[in-house]
Amino acid sequence: MKKIIIVEDDEVIREELQCFLKKYGYEVNAPRDFTNIIEYIKSENANLILLDINLPLFDGYYICREIRKHSHIPIIVVTSRNTEIDELMSINLGADDFITKPYNLEILLARITNIFKRIDTNFKTNSILNYKNFKLNLSNATV
């Protein structure tokens, strides 16, 4: 089961997203306290992050930049800020996608699904290691 972290300070949006994504089979964590959010994200071993820009303590840009220092986890910025500079900054700091509020939940789900398809395809492509006369298949743990 894929794990998604929602970093969103608006309780209504956070809970709506959490319920929606759980309905589609995702494990969803949605912290309410952002004091140690970067450490929290590092410790959760999630598969994707939905990240707002306007947050208490640290903005989403800072969080995105800090996550990118140590991880390639997909990040979708989900924000009410809808200027081209916000989108450009998000992408340049390492976000994989950018969607503005209000958004259509089905479109957000499609973007999440597409990111996971790309990751799974890349894993399958790179899941066989060759060494001399041996082939190690990482996807089914056979030699």
Automatic annotation (TrEMBL):
Q: Which residues cross the membrane?
A: none
Q: Which UniProt keywords apply?
A: DNA-binding, Phosphoprotein, Transcription, Transcription regulation
Name the SUPFAM superfamilies on file. CheY-like
**Modified residues annotated as 4-aspartylphosphate in this record:** D52
Q: Which SMART domains match?
A: REC
Q: Where is the Response regulatory domain?
A: 3-116
Instruction: Give the GO terms filed under biological process for this record.
Output: regulation of DNA-templated transcription
Q: Name one GO cellular component term.
A: protein-DNA complex
Q: Which GO terms describe its molecular function?
A: phosphorelay response regulator activity; transcription cis-regulatory region binding
Under InterPro entries, the record lists: CheY-like_superfamily (IPR011006), Sig_transdc_resp-reg_receiver (IPR001789), WalR-like (IPR039420)
Question: PANTHER family recorded for this chain?
Answer: REGULATOR OF RPOS, STAGE 0 SPORULATION PROTEIN A HOMOLOG
Q: Say what the protein does.
A: May play the central regulatory role in sporulation. It may be an element of the effector pathway responsible for the activation of sporulation genes in response to nutritional stress. Spo0A may act in concert with spo0H (a sigma factor) to control the expression of some genes that are critical to the sporulation process.
Question: What is the name attached to this protein's record?
Answer: Stage 0 sporulation protein A homolog
Q: Which organism is it from?
A: Clostridium tarantellae
Q: Please name the taxonomic classification of the source.
A: Bacteria, Bacillati, Bacillota, Clostridia, Eubacteriales
